[in-house]
Design goal:
heterodimer, A: 55 residues, mainly alpha, B: Rhopdopsin 7-helix transmembrane proteins, Heat Shock Protein 90, 3 domains, 5-stranded mixed beta sheet, two-stranded antiparallel sheet
């Protein structure tokens, strides 16, 4: 494994860890998310995606 | 959190979870078996693969992949069990992050395992670019839109990133498959091809088992076919995960020389200790806690002794193998030397007989003839031991080219004609066709056929030897049938092993080396063929069969 290749892998793994940490800070620490209390508020991504893909 | 939301959560009457993963909220206790078992297996195997793989990249990648898998399995259990919305959001996001990593890890492992080198920088960057949106957007509205309180299902609402994850997973499965097919076509060595097939089957089996829960759960949960049971059925797929993970770990062991027995014993003991130790979390009664502790201590002692004895046994076996190899080498050198001296003496005797001027005394000629015959037998004897040993250990060099196996077998039969006649035996050759084309070394194959016929002559007192050839599918089958002493069941098992002569064989053939048939087997197997013997029993004759693939 050459040095650049190794460096890329290391940076990527740090990013994975940072992404997990960010999720922790975001959701557990700061409770930064919304609650849907009404069905109509929930965007239906599945049907949006299906209509986008035409399936 | 507003008071309205707090009230909605209270109204749902969720059970509080213990240790994140244990609660009555879990829809089916099956998930503890389908998740905890793979989790424990993945952690143990990951730890031992890492420990044993030292500087092997494939081992490190498998360990990392198993790490991601463990995070996923744990997160999934938390999602099923927890009553805390922020935990659902966090662990769900972790799943979105690590799920494509598992697929990428398997692809990376497959590449390194097959090619024996790291991924090139360009392909690695391409895969990272594919994975980057998942990492960067995981905690945004693209990952999870929010927490669904419209029912009491404890669900997060997924954004488009989850679908993007499925897309990457499909791409990575296709890349893995393409890589395996390309490498399979490129290599012509059958052992390499076997390796590719095994590791691809293990990797894709692992991914399919891993995807099974999500695919069946997602596809059928809204349908009338399986309904609410779809998630339960989906769990069965995850049961396959430890099997394929163990299979991949085994492949690393098989192809990278660390010992499966020590590894297996360590894994077994560690799994037992974790399983017994985990009981301490559930047992509340003091008496039971003491009993679990005693079992744990006894298992630790037993496990330590087991691993130690297995390691000792393996060391003894390895020492024996080294000693055997040394002894074999010594015999080889001695035989070579003896063959040299015998051959030299034989040539001198032959010269003495052929040149009348060298030997004036007529009465000395019978003695010289006897000396020549004895030396020729000695050279043949040593030659057979050397050839048999080389063929068995794979040291024999083959010059392979297209050839007519019928001609080879015919010449070998002709060459053994005088030997048969000298014993008063009738030898015949019969072939269904004039030509059987095979790719092989004609010299070594002729020697192999000669050995088979010679063997039959040596163990036949009266009657005949029939050499036959016919086509069987895309193979050619040569048979050497005799009316000799036959083979009993006990001898049959060791017939084609080095030094594996029959119990009474020296009674009939004083020159038996025990290497003739081992040589035949070595040569035939090197040509991707097989050789075997059949006999109705002692005194009822024998039939030897040699099968080779036609070109």
């Amino acid at each position: 494994m050459d040095r650049n290749n190794k460096l890329v892998t290391a940076i990527f793994l740090i990013m994975v860890f940072a992404s997990g940490l960010n999720a922790y800070l975001h959701y557990v620490k700061n409770q930064d998310f919304i609650y849907f209390t009404n069905e109509n508020e929930i965007p239906d991504w599945n049907s949006l995606l299906r209509s986008f893909l035409g399936i | 959190m507003t008071s309205g939301i707090t009230q909605l959560i209270i109204d749902c009457q969720w059970f509080p979870s213990q240790f994140f993963i244990f609660s009555g909220n879990v829809f089916d206790p099956l998930i503890y078996y389908s998740h905890l078992l793979p989790l424990v297996t993945a952690l143990i195997l990951g730890f031992f693969v890492f420990l044993h793989s030292k500087n092997q990249l494939s081992g490190k990648i498998l360990t990392a992949t198993l790490g991601f898998l463990s995070v996923w399995l744990f997160s999934d259990m938390v999602i099923w069990a927890t009553e805390i919305p922020s935990h659902t959001m966090f662990f769900w996001t972790l799943e979105i992050i690590v799920e494509p990593m598992v697929y990428a890890g398997v692809f990376y492992f497959l590449y390194v395992f097959i090619n024996g080198k790291d991924l090139g920088l360009k392909i690695k960057l391409l895969i990272i670019v594919l994975l980057l949106p998942t990492l960067l957007l995981a905690s945004s509205k693209f990952g999870l839109l929010g927490y669904n309180l419209t029912s009491c299902d404890r669900d997060a609402v997924e954004g488009p990133l989850a679908h993007y994850g499925y897309f990457i997973e499909i791409v990575l499965i296709l890349l893995s498959l393409g890589l395996a097919v390309k490498s399979f076509i490129k290599t012509k060595i059958s052992s390499e091809r076997n390796k590719i097939v095994l590791v691809t089957a293990g990797s894709l089996g692992f991914l399919l088992a891993f995807s099974f829960g999500n695919v069946v759960g997602s596809l059928f949960s809204d349908s009338n076919i399986l309904g609410d049971y779809s998630w339960s059925i989906g769990q069965y797929g995850i049961f396959g995960v430890p099997i394929f993970v163990a299979f991949l770990a085994y492949l690393i062991v098989k192809y990278h020389s660390f010992n499966i027995k020590t590894f297996g014993a360590q894994v077994l003991v560690a799994a037992l200790l974790i399983l017994i130790g985990s009981e301490l979390f559930f047992v509340t009664n003091t008496m039971n806690q003491v009993l679990v502790m005693i079992t744990l201590i006894l298992t630790s002692i037993g496990g330590f002794l087991l691993v130690k004895s297995v390691a000792g046994e393996i060391k003894a076996k390895e020492d024996l193998q080294i000693a055997n190899a040394g002894q074999e080498n010594l015999i080889h050198i001695m035989n070579h030397q003896i063959k040299g001296y015998l051959a030299k003496a034989r040539n001198i005797f032959a010269e003495l007989l052929s040149e009348p001027d060298y030997c004036a005394a007529e009465e000395a000629k019978p003695m010289i003839s006897e000396g020549l015959r004895s030396l020729t037998e000695g050279v043949d004897f040593v030659q057979q031991v050397l050839q048999g040993s080389s063929a068995q250990s794979g040291k024999l060099v083959y010059t392979t080219k297209p050839m007519n196996f019928r001609s080879v077998a015919y010449v070998a039969t002709e060459e053994q004609g005088d030997n048969a006649k000298a014993k008063g035996l009738v030898i015949s050759f019969k072939s269904d066709a004039e030509e059987y084309k095979v790719n092989g070394d004609d010299v070594q194959l002729r020697e192999a056929v000669k050995n088979l016929i010679n063997n039959s002559i040596n163990y036949t007192e009266k009657g005949s030897i029939e050499v036959g050839m016919n086509k069987k599918g895309n193979k050619v089958l040569l048979s050497v049938k005799d009316t000799g002493i036959g083979i009993n069941k006990e001898d049959m098992g060791r017939l084609f092993q080095t030094g594996g002569r029959g119990k009474d064989s020296l009674k009939y053939n004083v020159n038996s080396t025990g290497y003739g048939l081992a040589f035949v087997r070595g040569v035939v197997e090197a040509h991707q063929g097989r050789v075997w013997a059949e006999s109705a029993g002692q005194g009822l004759g024998s039939a030897f069969y040699l099968e080779l693939p036609l070109s």
